[in-house]
Amino acid sequence: MDMNLWNEYKKGKKRYKAASWILCSGSLCMLASSILFICDSYIAGGIFIGIGGVLAITSIPLYFKGNDLRVESVENYNVMKKAKSHTVASLDFGVSDAGVGLALRF
Prior knowledge:
Radius of gyration: 28 Å
Structural class: alpha+beta
Strand order of the largest sheet: 1-2
Helix content: over 70%
Mean pLDDT: 88
Strand content: 5-15%
Shape: rod-shaped
Number of helices: 2
C-alpha cells in the first residue's frame, strides 16, 4: 500500500472530523442563542449567534476539502489496485508443428 495515499486519506479524515465538530459547536452556539433570545438576553444571544455563525461558516470549506481528499485517495488506490491486478486473457488461433489449434494466453 502506498503510504502517500494512506497519509492523504488520514489528513482528509482529520479535516472531515474537525469540520464536523466545529459545525456541531456552531450549531450548539446557535441553539444557545435562541434560548437566550427567548429569555430576553439579547446581547448574549447576539454574541452566541455570531460565534455560531462564524463556526458554521468556517467548517464548510474544511468539510468539503476533507471529503475531497478522502474520496481522491480512495479513487487513486482503486486505480493502482486495478492496474496491478489487471490481466488480459485472449484466445488465439494458431498453427504449430503439431497442427492447428487454439491457444489461451494470459
